[in-house]
Write a structure and sequence with these properties.
The complex is a heterodimer of chains A (163) and B (224). With 163 residues, chain A is an alpha+beta fold. Chain A contains 4 helices and 6 strands, in the order E-H-E-E-H-E-E-E-H-H. Chain A is 47% helix and 21% strand. In chain A, strands 3-2-6-5-4 form a 5-stranded antiparallel sheet, sandwiched between helices. In chain A, a hairpin with a 4-residue loop joins strand 2 and strand 3. The model of chain A has no long low-confidence stretch (mean pLDDT 90). In chain B, the strands form 2 sheets. In chain B, strands 1, 2, 3, 4, 5, 6, 7 and 12 form an 8-stranded mixed sheet that branches. In chain B, strands 8-11-10-9 form a 4-stranded antiparallel sheet, with no helix packed on it. Classes of the chains: A alpha+beta (163), B alpha/beta (224). Chains A and B meet through strand 1, helix 1, strand 3, helix 2 and helix 4 of A and strand 1, strand 2, strand 4, strand 5 and helix 2 of B. Strand 1 of chain A pairs parallel with strand 1 of chain B, so a sheet runs across the interface.
């Protein structure tokens, strides 16, 4: 055991994910859907490009989901599989995917929570299968290409060196 | 858990500032936020109480730019230092790629430093991570205060070193940041390794970027 495992998302994976998300958006009438990993990193997005800071949004979503996960355990539940945040105009529906990823659906009054929940079920099943397969593929030996580390170190010196 | 996203050509790494309450973790992030060029940083998010004590975490993304076609970004987090926020601390450590322990140098905070270091080890083990085998540095903060303990005492308490089991790593290794000092050395016939440490006065920015530079390089090396 050492640190956390490094894993990767390939272009083929991204295409399959995008097709699933796009199909779901059309069926549910939602505006935007995002996939965020539980560590707060954005994996994919589909629909209208969000106008907010996506990096900050991803970090807060992961924290929100993790905190609620702990609350569920305190209640004796294994998890809260989904969360709903209701706003006056914009609402958020968040659901777990394969215990490591969060599907976020942004929607407004052009659709309803009921329709989003109804349509999201199949998408979640398909995303679950996709990510379980992706994680099972074994990303333990994911490495950056030769030369990356050296260049990155130079960049760190350039960015932080004079501060 | 670094994520290499070949589709969006991004690499994201997570760094966590850990340590006792009021030790200067948030101050480190605030100084970094203040100094890094606007193009290289995102929004600084603080989930804090009304009295500006960290409640959940602070978060600051720092962009390293595009390297070999990959947009490379560090996600900097702090944890709440106060003892009773342990559930939140553990959550933030999930998926961490590198840890910076910010110790409070004041003699009166010796106990709090030790308790927090033990808590860090415990929380890492609960996630299944081994702190001795991943990027980890210590920052001794508040070096300007008259009641700051000598570095040797702090090292003895917080960074005594752990035995090196792997024969391939049992060789004297100099600390690249401290001429004449060793990170790996033999003590009474046993090979021991200490982590690199940095002296800091975070409110003035002293040592803040030395620490960040050191942990960033270690995290990227672990990817290679």
């Amino acid at each position: 055991m050492s640190g956390a495992t490094t894993w990767s998302l390939g272009e083929g994976d991204a295409r399959r994910i995008n097709a699933l998300l796009t199909g779901f958006l059309q069926e549910a009438g939602a505006r935007t859907t995002l996939l965020i990993d539980r560590n707060g990193q954005m994996l994919a997005a589909a629909g209208e490009p969000p106008v907010f800071d996506q990096v900050a949004f991803a970090s807060l979503t992961a924290a929100d989901f993790s905190a609620n996960d702990q609350l569920a355990r305190m209640l004796g539940e294994a998890e809260f599989g989904a969360l709903f945040h209701q706003g006056e105009r914009e609402s958020l529906y968040l659901a777990d995917v394969a215990r490591r990823v969060i599907l976020v659906v942004l929607f407004d009054n052009r659709t309803t929570l009921g329709l989003v929940k109804l349509r999201v079920k199949r998408t979640l099943q398909e995303l679950n299968l996709l990510f379980l397969e992706l994680f099972a593929r074994g990303n333990r030996d994911v490495r950056v290409e030769a030369g990356f580390v050296g260049e990155a170190e130079d960049e760190i010196d350039r960015l932080f060196g004079t501060l | 858990m670094s994520l290499i996203n070949y589709a969006s050509r991004e690499i994201n790494c997570k760094l966590v500032y850990y340590g006792p309450g009021l030790g200067g973790k948030t101050t480190n992030l605030e100084y970094i936020y203040e100094k890094v060029a606007p193009t290289a940083k995102g929004k600084l998010i603080s989930l804090a109480t009304e009295t500006e004590r960290t409640l959940f975490f602070d978060f600051l993304p720092v962009d390293l730019g595009t390297i070999r076609g990959f947009k490379t970004r560090f996600h900097l987090y702090t944890v709440p230092g106060q003892v009773y926020y342990n559930a939140s601390r553990r959550l933030i450590l999930k998926g961490v790629d590198g840890v910076i322990f910010v110790a409070d140098s004041q003699i009166e905070r010796t106990e709090a430093n030790l308790e927090s270091m033990q808590n860090l080890y415990d929380n890492m083990v609960q996630h299944g991570y081994d702190l001795t085998r991943m990027p980890f540095v210590i920052q001794y903060n508040k070096r300007d205060l008259p009641n700051a303990a000598p570095i040797a005492e702090l090292q003895e308490a917080l960074n005594p070193g752990w035995p090196v089991e792997d024969p391939a790593r049992q060789r004297a290794t100099l600390d690249p940041d401290r001429p004449g000092e060793y990170l790996v050395r033999q003590v009474d016939g046993t090979w021991v390794e200490r982590v690199a440490y940095f002296e800091a006065v975070a409110v003035q920015g002293v040592g803040v970027f030395d620490t960040l530079r050191a942990i960033s390089k270690r995290v990227l090396k672990a990817l290679g």
